[in-house]
Amino acid sequence: MQDSKARQFPQSLGFREGTTSVHTSRTIMLDELSLLLANVSPNGKAVSYVSAIVNENALGKPTRTTRQRTAKRLEELYSLDPICTLFRLLRHFWPTDQAGRPMLAFLAAAARDPLLRESTPFVLAVQVGATVTPAQTAEHLAAKYPKRFQESTGLATAQRLASSWTQAGYRWPEQPKTTDAIDMLADRDGILCLPSVRGEPSYDIFVRWKPVHEQAIGWQPDLNDGVRMNIRPFIEADILRKTPNIKWTKDRGKEPERDKDEYPWFWSGCEFIGDRVNDVHLKNADKQAARKARDRK
To answer: What does pTM read for this prediction?
Structure first.
């Protein structure tokens, strides 16, 4: 009976066992967690967190399906339920030390993600100053879990584990400039260590004919905007094999007069200029605030 209770003790605190891991598709999602905790009251119940993601779109996801998947992954990583001891402690200590938040999130995620937890002894065994490639991590996974991963899946999972360790404050080698790296950018939550996915200046997508509340947050390409606009994050991150010769300052001609609050880049003080500028960078926080202001109308 005592052995049974001992086995149940970690789970009762929120730990998760087994072989299921979020890292087959995501990382510890530090940016999403930070934004979510900033938008939900510390006294909020579990339903408040899910509602903020799915119904209020506090994380700025493009579709309801993406919001639902994001909520599911964050629940798997952190529980998002104050009844769970792990999440309650995470929520309690989150405001006390901003610099320590990445490691706090990592510790909570490792308690609930067996694959991340399993990678810990491997990473900590690396000598200070040495580097570990994703391929080496993939080899470790293959040895630990024979026949579980196909080669491509194992490497992608290793990339996401590397990203999670990076988000926690550990340094990893830069990603190679290959088409494979570009492919991995399609999973906007998968390789968060690449700045082009975050969408903050100067790795943001800017479209001058869209109002602030319609500007992309993170990697949200719109095929209607044209290739030039959508590949800018890749150009800024310098991961393309060939960099196209693109003029980013402004295009010829003038724009018709537009609302200053929605299109501030066309204005200079109280005067409408109308230059077709392209070299504009908006912070994600400003875009998110514009979306919330629109929703309140």
So the answer is: 0.56
